[in-house]
Amino acid sequence: METINPLKKSPIGIFDSGLGGLTVLKSLEKLLPNESFIYFGDTAHVPYGSKSAETVIRYSKSIMDFFMKHYTKAVVIACNTASAVAYDYLKKMYTIPLFDVVTPSVEYSIKISKSKNVGVIGTYSTIKSKAYTKMFKKLGRDYKVKEVPCPLFVPLIEEGWVDTSIAKNIVETYLNEFQHDNIQSLILGCTHYPIMANTIQSVLSNKIELIHSGKTVGNKLKDFLIKQNIENSINSEPSVKFYVTDFPQKFDELGSRFLGRHLKNVSHINSV
Ligand code: DGL
Q: pLDDT digit string (tens) for 33-85?
């Protein structure tokens, strides 16, 4: 008789500094409709994007300890800042299969590459780490990678101002940096940016492809689960549980905006 690998039914962990990572969860749910997920949003400590690498590593480590106790079969670091500054450290410390959002977007960008010019936008900490530039080098690609921080995008998106003329002005001002670079793709290196993708695309040539972390990491995770034979192909009732370290103002509004539905099954967990 065939034995079923018990890992097939185990949930997948996904974490972010707050609620922005729900954009990544949304993509994962679409690509892996039979999987169960545990989403951890460190809402008491958000934003990570302006904090030091040491602090983000400390928070991320505690979240990994949380997932270890919940027997997740893999963990996705949805937060670009945590992926950029903490992934290498966490990968060495934990045996659990771990997915960052930097590597798959760089791999995808190389795959669709027509020229060697690529743009990346993200938080201050992500851009300061140069994680994307380093990843292109690590993969043996001599690309011209221009990384630009866009710190005003997160508050604009959280205010729900993505379709306003103010947002368009701000997007134009930041992206003006790429004017002379002839980039072939722009990596959206922050959980929030997919929400503003239309505004971002509207100020760029439509030949420039926007790369979404949720999709690239989702495809990589899916391949991994299939190869390891631990994908859940028959789960008729996948569950999603949410854990947050705080209930900030506008929690429901933001949660619904990023995930596209009301958040159910939400538990508070003391700050890690
Ligand atoms: N989740 C963060 C990221 O993707 C954005 C919000 C923050 O600064 O914590 O970099």
A: 999 999 999 999 999 999 999 999 999 999 999 999 999 999 999 999 999 99
Full-model pTM: 0.96
Q: Is 147 helix (H, G, I), strand (E, B) or coil?
A: strand
What is the residue with the minimal CA distance to atom 8 of ligand 1? 49
Give the whole-angstrom CA distance, residue 252 versus residue 267: 13
Give, to the nearest 10 degrees, the angle between helix 213-227 and helix 102-111.
100
Paired strand residues for 74? 12
- Beta strands 185-189 and 117-122 are parallel
Cβ pair 101, 77 in contact under 8 A: yes
Check if 245 has its Cβ closer than 6 Å to any atom of ligand 1: no
d(CA 193, CA 149): 12
Our separate counts of H helices and E strands in the chain read 11, 10
**Type of residue numbered 262:** H
Ligand 1 site-directed mutation target among 40, 48, 102, most atoms within 8 Å of CB: 48
Rounded CA-CA distance 178/92 in Å is 35
Radius of gyration of the chain (CA): 18
The tokens for 32 are: 């892996």
